[in-house]
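Our preliminary data section would be incomplete without showing what the modeling component actually yields. Below, a chain of 368 amino acids is followed by its predicted structure, encoded as tokens that our downstream tools consume directly.
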Amino acid sequence: MDSRRKIIHIDMDAFYASVDQRDFPELRGKALAVGGSPDGRGVVATASYEARKFGVRSAMPSRQALQLCPHLIFTRPRFDVYKEVSHQIREIFRRYTDLIEPLSMDEAYLDVSTDKQGIGSALEIASAIKKAIREELNLTASAGVSINKFVAKIASDQDKPNGLTFIGPSKIKSFLEALPIERFFGVGKVTAAKMRQLNIHTGGDLKKLDESTLIHIFGKTGRHFYNMARGIDNREVQPNREVKSISVEDTFAKDLIKRSEVTDELYVLAAKLSKRLQIRTLSGKTLTLKIKFHDFVQITRSQSFTEILSGKDTIYRFACNLLDRAGAENRKIRLLGLTMSNFTMHEEEASDYARQLSLFDDDEMSTR
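Predicted structure:
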């Protein structure tokens, strides 16, 4: 582990909702959901912190969000505005380093091991970036600072909103050992439940298991869990990573059997995938359906089209067609996933919206 690296993870606080509250004073201090609708259709893209107090979260169906927060206000996403603000944030980053790896419009890794202004302290640079975002854009960001991407990302999530957390080399071991297993990125609800059954509740518990045991229990992700518990992450910040595909998937606590249950979940996934494509200004021509059955047998079905696929309804329709070809009738389904690939966009746009390849092949993505 290279203790000389200085990595910052910047994560904007409730980005879409915060931009809308900034631009529309009547929304400030209100429980707000960007995306979805008051008639219960669609899913929430981002919830304001006022809404999160009621349990409203990103990717939550509007119907469920309204049950938790009946006075919730819905706004239509303004992706052109969010994209412009994202560019402004990126320009602030470039004052300090050119080694920037965007994960989405509102999140990025920065390698400031050698910073442009010669400040030397990653903590001071992170503080300066947060100050500039607040004063120039009237928004807040949370930052994590450490010696690698994995620990920096966990650190940025420690004190939201408007947080700044530094986890130095001497603190990584004790910090990760005390961290609840649910807080490790890549450990979703299903995996966390399985770990708790094995008496794994913290990073310290996870660290007691050797690599071969973890691989035996969790498959290929066991190696990632082994490294996570020890804070090992040698990935470099990659500013020009090309986008090859965008994926969404969910593992279900209860297996799906009825076709109506499966198609309902496919609609939710299609909405999530459509949002992610919109965020990155991407359109694709190849759609892939992934199904994992209760016995862990996994299949995929793909189809390529001459025209680009866009919009959740179109994605959903073709996902259902792929389901018809999958031979999944009367089989218990524990996981569904959708992937869009074969993108059509300008090369420079793809670089601008390069996203991190997933470190973990897990059951869900957590968003705070």
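Confidence is low (pLDDT under 50) at residues 345-368. Residues 259-279 form the longest helix (21 residues). Preliminary results of this kind motivate Aim 1 of the renewal.
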